[in-house]
Amino acid sequence: MHVISQKALWVFAKEHADAATPLRAWFKLAQHGRFNNLAELKRTFAGVDMVPVEGRDLYVFNIGGNKYRLIAAIHFNIRRLFVRHILTHSEYDTERWKK
């Protein structure tokens, strides 16, 4: 899977040092994964959910023991994962990311 917007991962990790290790682990698994659908994604990332937002499906990953949330758009057919947001749990709960 080609992860697009990797920079967002490392910028977030700089601001939240305890997120660096789990984000590196997530990135490695995502980058080397070959996923065709949500079921296959869940085999690697048990803490991922699909959330429909304004007619599109976004995938929400629990990072760092559910302390952080990574929101991505995934195009399984072309093997592209676009990092949309990385948020603290409290930022995620405001649901502003849905706009």
Could you tell me the radius of gyration in angstroms? 13 Å
Q: What fraction of residues sit in β-strands?
A: 25-35%
Please provide the count of β strands.
5
Helix and strand pattern: EHHHEEEEH
| Molecular shape | globular
Roughly how many Å apart are the termini?
A: 26 Å
Most strands sheet: 5 strands, mixed
- Could you tell me the mean pLDDT? 94
Question: What's the helix count?
Answer: 4
Tally of domains? 1
**Are there runs of 5+ residues with pLDDT below 50, and where?**
none
Give your account of this protein's structure.
This protein has 99 residues and is an alpha+beta fold. It has helices spanning 6-15, 20-32, 38-44, 89-93, and strands at residues 2-4, 48-53, 56-63, 68-75, 80-88. It has a single domain (2-98), classed as YaeB-like fold. The chain has 4 helices and 5 strands. Strands 1-5-4-3-2 form a 5-stranded mixed β-sheet. A hairpin with a 4-residue loop joins strand 3 (56-63) and strand 4.
